[in-house]
Design brief:
The protein has 241 residues and is mainly α. The protein has two domains: 82 residues; 105 residues, Iron/manganese superoxide dismutase, C-terminal domain (minor pseudopilin epsh fold), CATH 3.55.40.20. The protein is 53% helix and 10% strand. The chain contains eight helices and three strands; from the N terminus they run H-H-H-H-H-E-E-E-H-H-H. A three-stranded antiparallel sheet has the order 2-1-3. Strand 1 and strand 2 form a beta hairpin. The longest helix has 30 residues.
Length: 241
């Protein structure tokens, strides 16, 4: 990491820490309740499959991922929303510190959503079918060409640093595989259909540095009925900007 990047990272971490500390000191108004946007009432979604029956992804890995990373983000998002609600009543709260809290809100929101998309799409036999398969073949020349591009994008993140996301772009009304850093870098109108977690916590326990084997195992366990339902749902949404 170069000096400028390191200073930026340290600065961001410092702002975020100060934001939490300052917001924690704010006292809620007696009898007041947090508005819905800051209710901090997010609940974790349970796994919809038996993690002991996946092919190439251990139960220990899946449960650790769900309990430590996903559940941790749900709890953190609820805490951040509570801090934001408290900070809202303090007119002297520094904007730069509030900005740190807002960035963390975006970061944790993305983590929760992407993890839920990740887990919900597991538990299948990995055999693509339905309208989404036809659409991917049309958009990439063949389904196999899309899958190769998806794998290549995932491996570009193999250092354990983000998400590989198949999304339907409502603006262009087309399917694309996107490289997503830090839980929150996606097109403004992109709706994820598949979200592959490429952070090391998602695979290191089973595969160490062999990220390609993890990608293979992930694809073998996809439930394409779920993915096709997502595609059909989002494809039916009209959007005029």
């Amino acid at each position: 990491m170069d000096g400028v990047t390191r200073r930026a990272a340290i600065g961001t971490a410092t702002i975020g820490g100060l934001g939490l500390a300052l917001a924690a000191k704010a006292q809620p108004v007696a009898g007041a309740t947090a508005p819905p946007a800051f209710s901090g009432a997010h609940q974790p979604k349970p796994l919809t499959f038996d993690p002991a029956r996946l092919d190439g992804l251990s139960e220990h890995l899946i449960r650790s991922h769900w309990e430590n990373n996903y559940l941790g983000s749900v709890k953190a998002l609820n805490m951040i929303e509570a801090r934001l609600a408290a900070a809202m009543i303090d007119r002297e709260f520094p904007p730069v510190i509030y900005g740190g809290l807002k960035r963390e809100q975006l970061h944790r929101t993305g983590s929760v959503i992407l993890h839920e998309i990740y887990f919900r799409a597991l538990g299948g036999n990995g055999k693509a079918a339905g309208d989404v398969r036809t659409a991917l073949a049309a958009s990439h020349g063949s389904f196999e060409a899309w899958e190769a591009e998806f794998r290549r994008t995932a491996m570009a993140l193999a250092g354990g640093s983000g998400w590989c996301v198949l999304a339907f772009n409502l603006h262009t009304r087309s399917l694309h595989t996107y490289w997503a850093w830090d839980h929150m870098h996606q097109p403004a109108t992109g709706v994820p259909l598949i979200a592959l977690d490429m952070y090391e916590h998602a695979f290191h326990m089973d595969y160490g540095a062999a990220a390609a084997k993890y990608v293979d195992a992930y694809l073998r366990n996809l439930d394409w009925e779920v993915i096709d339902h997502r595609f059909q749902t989002v494809n039916a949404i009209p959007l005029e900007l």
